Amino acid sequence: MAAELHVALVAADREVWSGEATLVVARTTSGDIGVMPGHQPLLGVLESGPVTIRTRDGGTVIAAVHGGFISFADNKLSLLAEIAELSDEIDVQRAERALERAKSDADALAERRADVRLRAAAGR
Amino acid sequence: MGAQLRVYKRRIRSVTATKKITKAMEMIAASRVVKAQRKVAASTPYATELTRAVTAVGTGSNTKHPLTTQAETVTRSAVLLLTSDRGLAGAFNSNAIKAAEQLTERLEREGKQVDTYIVGRRGVAHYNFRERTIAESWTGFTDEPSYADAKNVAAPLIEAIETATAEGGVDELHIVYTEFISMMTQTAVDSRLLPLSLEEVAEEKAPTGEILPLYDFEPSAEDVLDALLPRYVESRIYNALLQSAASKHAATRRAMKSATDNAGELIETLSRLANAARQAEITQEISEIVGGASALADATAGSDN
Fold first, then answer.
1. How large is the ipTM?
2. Of B79, B82, B223, B225, which has the highest C-beta tally within 10 A?
3. Which of B218, B220, B223 would you mutate first to test chain A, the one with the most A CBs within 10 A?
4. Domain that holds residue A68
């Protein structure tokens, strides 16, 4: 059986997802990073972007993460984010509306947030 | 009905109405405590992980950061005081304010200038009434603080600490809030948030002597620390806000419980008095009738003669 790592995706006010995984891909400020079991201890700053978690049974969990940190040690990976949503929690229509609004208001941050949500939702 | 009895009856009615209100407030507060406690619990994983990460960077690298290094001479400190928007919570607010005043006094004795930041209408009112200056204040969310509120509170504080002292910044950040220990015990505590003393954080984090691994920092230790520390401050403030909210509801519950108990006692005493007054009235009526009858009998007996 392949090695596993324990993943905890926590937002500021709740634990969004936790479980065993074989691979986690996240976007740090210096590029995408993939973490597999036995990775060297790591602490990085996350960009807002989708995070992909490949679970033990071959399934995939995608979450939209807006800023935060990734930390890995002892085969335990924590993704800390102020705001994090699983792809199936995302309301696509609402995100699309938010994207439109952000574009018309020229709000780059809101546009990016909506874009990340949509991309996470599209990948599910 | 006699005048005395009527007065008692009226008072019993009014106290009963008050008792119903305080009872309702007690039950509302009790349900809110549970909700607030749940929120504290929900925010714990984030706070623990963040503390762990801060400790890891602080101890695992030789990075010097304004938020972790102690200024040689501290000339100005910021004190953040967390109170509630509404009263009816016993000594909850006055305890927090008292703790903040003691802290301010201590800092001023050490020759530091103190900027006060206040959350909650009660604290603001207290300071305004005494015409003390408030650097900044926030109100309207103390019953159910959200993470966004904590961010709002943290933003000017982080900015102040990053500004040089000569330009109006501060060197230290203290926070005064009410710690929720249990349903029955809440204490006002003050703690220094910044500069961070890593030894303390490390002790808090790993009393078991857990050894932290040597981390690889992405992109670099400085950048990680830069991004990490404001989040850490926000999360600490969020936690303090939640604890303060839970404490406030617990204090309200207790205050309302004793108000309800007192009302019950008062009703009992007043009922006793009302009963005595009614009895006295009856006794008086009987003796009046008896007296009248005997006077009448005496008069009739006299006319027969």
1. 0.76
2. B82
3. B218
4. 5-86
